[in-house]
Structure formats: structure tokens, C-alpha cells
Amino acid sequence: MTNPRTPQVRRTARSYWNEPAMGAWERVYLLEVVRGLTITGGVFLRNMWKWCTGRKGAVTVYYPEETRADYARGNRGKHVLVQRADGSPQCVACNLCATVCPARVIEIEAAFDPDDAAHPKSPASFEIDYARCIFCGLCVEACPEDAIRMVKDVPDLPGPDRARMWLSKDELLGWQPARDAAKPYPPRAAGAGSAAASTGSAR
Ligand code: SF4
Ligand code: SF4
After folding, report:
1. Model confidence over 47-94: pLDDT tens digits?
2. 111 C-alpha to ligand 1 centroid (Å)
3. Are 169 and 123 in contact, with CB atoms under 8 Å apart?
4. pTM of whole model > 0.85?
């Protein structure tokens, strides 16, 4: 009987659908090495020549003197908290984003307003620690309200002091205001109170 702890050795070689087909040229391994070195050396010398003649060579950004402007459209950059028409966050403080965040960098303090029947919960505070965020985008994927997005730009993200790299709710709401017309916020019922009644830590 086979011991379940004994690793099984695959006796037949597995073939993959995208297995590269090597011709005679590729099978002479040394020639491909020389070809690779020629390409790398050519790029290096071309960039070096541009550098020596005062032109920009390699794609290196000298931050903070220079900043890139050519981020891909789908780049996961700085977060934005989406606003409702009245400017309040669309977030309902459900804590899903903080729960799914693998780096555990989102901290939310929930507020509760019993007079707002449509959206009684909202974030009293919402903070992201950019010193530890890995820009995976899972928080955006997890949000059921489309309340948090990542735009392609990354302005002013790096900092010399880790303790100052927490982004507050106000900055997340206001640095690049975003609205979602598909999710209009129902108007508050006439005569309803305005202040949030109580707050509680959601995390
Ligand atoms: S992008 Fe990833 S690491 Fe950063 S806050 Fe969102 S879930 Fe966390
Ligand atoms: S941003 Fe979205 S997932 Fe995170 S607490 Fe707010 S509603 Fe929930």
C-alpha cells in the first residue's frame, strides 16, 4: 500500500499547450546566449550614448524632481472614496475592504445615525496606511457599494516618515472627488435628525 506521505513521482513527462517548439538554432544553446547578450549590450550602449550626449537614456525617473505621467490606464494608484451627491462618503462602513486587505492597512471607525433610515452606517473615520499598502486592489474588488476606487495616478504617496503616510477620510474623499451617478443617494426623510448618534470601532 502506498504511504500517503510519500511524494508521488510523475513517470510520464507532461506536455503543455504552449510548449515552445525549439528549432535547430535554439537547440545550439550557446548561439542563443550570444544573441541575448548582443541585444542587451546594444540597448545598454544605446542608452549610455544618449546619456553621454545629454539626452535621456534609460527609463529611470528621478523622483521627486521628476514624476511619471505615463501610467497605464488600468494602473492601481492612489485610493479615492466615492462621494454621494451631498458630498458624504458612499461607504457604508461594512468593513469588507478592511477584512479582505492582505496587508491590514485599512482602519475604519463606523458611525451610526438612526435617523437616516436609508444609510444608517457611515465611516466616522477611514484611514489607509500607505507605508504598507501593496496596491493589490482587493479592497476595491470587495466593496459592495463601489465606494472605494483606485485611480491611475500616485501623487505625493512616498514620504520620509512612516507615521505620516496614513491617508485620512478627508484626503481620500477630496484629493480627486468622484461621484457615482448610478447610485444616487436617497434624500433624507423630512424632519429627520442630522447628527450621527453614536460611533463604534469597526476594526
Ligand atoms: S490595495 Fe490591497 S493592500 Fe492596499 S488597501 Fe487595498 S486591499 Fe489593502
Ligand atoms: S469602502 Fe466599501 S467595503 Fe470598505 S467599508 Fe466602505 S462600503 Fe464597505
Report:
1. 888 888 877 666 677 777 877 777 888 889 999 999 988 888 999 999
2. 22
3. yes
4. no
